[in-house]
Specification:
The protein has 416 residues and is mainly α. 82% of the residues lie in helices and 0% in strands.
């Protein structure tokens, strides 16, 4: 399999194709607005995590915060998918982004007043979670409206690029800002960053939204989306893989503030560096995928990522030196993005337009919905076994699942 990938990469790789989606004016507005906003989002995420650890000195509380942010997904993500198929996705995104901006400024005000407490962070995290639940389906589905269908994989890779530029830069700047000026400025910058995406959405020249005739109930629409997902073998398998990676792999990020302090004996700056280098690896992966253009070996790359990611996690669990930890996280970020980017594009291209909002809400529910459970698990396990043991268990679990998928679902690695 790996020799085949090497040959196909040699024939298909081209830097000229990397930024194909930026030829579309609407996508350019989306790309630059989202990237600025995501930069602020990751500054805030890094600051919130370290702030709650600073206030409580408890890895379990990091898990509680992750749980509070993620649990709304279970209640609101599927109805949000129906909403995304019934109303203008641009309008829905403008509502969610504007409300997130307001919450960021509330968080900043509490911090400037030195009034913020751990329970405030849990309540605010829950609020962000509700908004993210309604934001994710239209954010995933609107990309199809911005580029030609043949360039959807490139556009999704570009989405990953902008996301991970934010991951690569936001946490590092957030860590430095936190260390020198305090967390309130991280939250303020995040609030201001939402202006860029709101303006970009407003300026897009999209086809007028024509609401579909509502002949069925919300419950019937939900059942239709669930039925399509469950009965489509490849979509079902890919979403299961994404859920497993999210449960046992993505949640390790929750432990980063505690890892920086207790394992690597660092501070907020160390936490920011760890978060950023993982994002830098994911950014490199997104650029790599975008540069392949309209390639025909997604399954092989997806299978490769599903094995590489847990192996990097196992390596990370054993390392106690910051430069080596950063190097391994770089690889973990690269492999993780192979999984998420290729899974996302495959699910979208396999779904008809009238169902895409609902199917992507199911995808997002699985991806984001298991994160709070994973956050609780890693928080509790870290309290009992320590952070390294927790990451070791997670990496081993993903590796076993990847091996089972490889053995029993051979069609996955042959996806074009």
């Amino acid at each position: 399999m790996f020799s085949q990938i090497k040959g196909q990469l040699r024939d298909g790789f081209s830097w000229k194709r990397t930024f194909t989606s930026l030829n579309y004016p609407n996508y350019r507005l989306w790309f630059w607005g989202q990237m600025i906003s995501l930069f602020g989002t990751w500054m805030q995420s890094t600051a919130l995590g370290f702030l709650i650890f600073d206030l409580t000195h408890s890895p379990a509380y990091l898990g509680y915060a992750g749980f509070a942010a993620g649990i709304p997904v279970w209640f609101f993500m599927l109805p949000a998918g129906v909403v995304a198929d019934r109303m203008s996705r641009r309008r829905l995104l403008m509502i969610t982004q504007s409300t997130m901006m307001a919450l960021a400024f509330i968080t900043a005000a509490l911090s400037f007043a030195h009034f913020i407490r751990p329970w405030h962070i849990l309540v605010l995290s829950f609020g962000y979670g509700v908004l993210n639940a309604f934001d994710a389906p239209p954010r995933q589905a609107i990309v199809q409206e911005l580029v030609h269908a043949d360039d959807l994989t490139n556009a999704i890779a570009m989405n990953s690029m902008m996301f991970n530029i934010g991951v690569a830069l936001g946490p590092a700047v957030g860590g430095l800002t936190y260390a020198f000026f305090g967390p309130a400025w991280c939250f303020t910058i995040n609030g201001l960053s939402f202006i860029a995406v709101i303006v970009g959405l407003k300026r897009m020249a999209l086809e007028p939204h024509v609401p579909p005739p509502v002949k069925t109930s919300v419950l019937a629409d939900l059942k239709e989306g669930l039925r399509y997902t469950v009965t489509h073998p490849m979509i079902r398998t890919i979403i299961s893989l994404v859920g497993f990676v999210s449960l046992f792999g993505f949640s390790f990020v929750t432990l980063m503030p505690a890892w920086a302090v207790k394992v690597l004996h660092g501070d907020a700056t160390t936490n920011g560096l760890l978060q950023s280098v993982r994002g830098l690896g994911a950014l490199g992966s997104a650029v790599f995928i975008a540069s392949l253009g309209r390639f025909k070996f997604r399954g092989k790359l997806l299978s490769t990522g599903s094995f590489a990611f847990p192996l990097f996690l196992l390596g990370f669990s054993a390392i106690r030196w910051l430069p080596a930890s950063m190097a391994v996280l770089l690889g973990a970020g690269f492999a993780q993005m192979l999984i998420l980017n290729l899974a996302n594009s495959t699910v979208q291209t396999s779904t008809p337009a009238n169902l895409r909002g609902r199917v992507m809400s199911i995808y997002s529910l699985v991806f984001f919905g298991v994160m709070p459970i994973g956050s609780l698990l890693v928080g509790w396990t870290a309290d009992k076994l320590g952070e390294p043991g927790t990451v070791l268990i997670g990496g081993a679990a993903i590796l076993v699942f990847a091996a089972l998928t490889f053995a029993f679902t051979p069609r996955l690695r042959h996806l074009a």
